[in-house]
From TrEMBL:
Keywords: Lyase. PANTHER family: CATION TRANSPORT PROTEIN CHAC-RELATED, GLUTATHIONE-SPECIFIC GAMMA-GLUTAMYLCYCLOTRANSFERASE 2. Signal peptide: none annotated. It comes from Leucocoprinus leucothites. It is an enzyme of class 4 (lyase). The keyword Metal-binding does not apply. The keyword Lyase applies. This is glutathione-specific gamma-glutamylcyclotransferase.
């Protein structure tokens, strides 16, 4: 009796996994563009960036219905950590967001990596190590607009979601304070603003539909700080 083929292992990557898409996870066999996912959200947290871990260039550009969140990236700089993005559940966002309303109109864009099922266990171990600082793996459906209608095109894609009970999690920050932090912070990975600029540019390039109001507003603020410094230095 022939056994049924193993289901593909699909991972939704966001944040630096968009602009580092040419260095994807091992054993990726497919990627694509212009799809969006709907159920989870984003917020602030601190993360350990593990050097040397890389991802391959075979993915789908997708959007998850999430809030564009922020997290601290450079744990080595304990006194002045930078910011990177993570996803959190909406109910968690509502508990710690303060006056920041959930932006229902926003979609967070990312990349769907389809992994060779033969290597699923190996890639899971790799990703669990890479995302070890306060993330849990959960599932979500990925959608795309086909012939003018939104349809589910990938069921139960895996996604790493931030936990608000881990020491690296920050929560919500006012946009101006967040922009100033990103503008000033430099860590082992380089200037934190480069993370922001690369992410914003990569989101623009993913699809004609890809847009993130929070991300682009933050980018404008940080670039304004750059411009202000240039004028003062002139």
């Amino acid at each position: 009796m022939v056994s049924a083929p193993a289901l593909p292992f699909v991972v939704f990557g966001y944040g630096s996994l968009i602009f580092k898409a040419r260095c994807p996870p091992p054993h990726v066999i497919a990627q694509g563009t212009r799809i969006r996912a709907r159920p989870i959200i984003i917020v602030e947290r601190q993360s350990n960036e593990s050097p040397g871990l890389q991802f391959p260039d075979t993915s789908k550009a997708i959007g998850a219905k999430l809030f564009p969140g922020r997290i601290a990236q450079n744990l080595i700089c304990v006194q002045n950590p930078g910011r990177v993005v993570t996803l959190v559940h909406k109910e968690d966002w509502d508990r710690f967001s303060g006056s920041d309303a959930f932006p229902d109109e926003d979609v967070v864009w990312g990349i769907a990596y389809t992994i060779d099922p033969v290597y699923e266990a190996e890639v899971r171990d790799y990703l669990d190590y890479r995302e070890k600082d306060g993330y849990t793996m959960e599932t979500l459906d990925i959608h795309s607009v086909i012939d003018g209608k939104e349809q589910t095109i990938i069921h139960n894609a895996f996604c790493y979601v931030g936990r608000n009970d881990n020491p690296s999690f920050i929560g919500s920050e006012p946009l101006d304070i967040l922009a100033d932090r990103i503008w000033r912070t430099v860590g082992p990975s380089g200037p934190n603003k480069e993370y922001l600029f690369k992410l914003a540019n990569s989101v623009r390039e993913l699809s004609p539909d890809s847009y993130d109001s929070h991300l682009f507003a933050l980018e404008d603020m940080v670039k304004a700080l750059d411009g202000q410094l240039s004028k003062e230095s002139a």
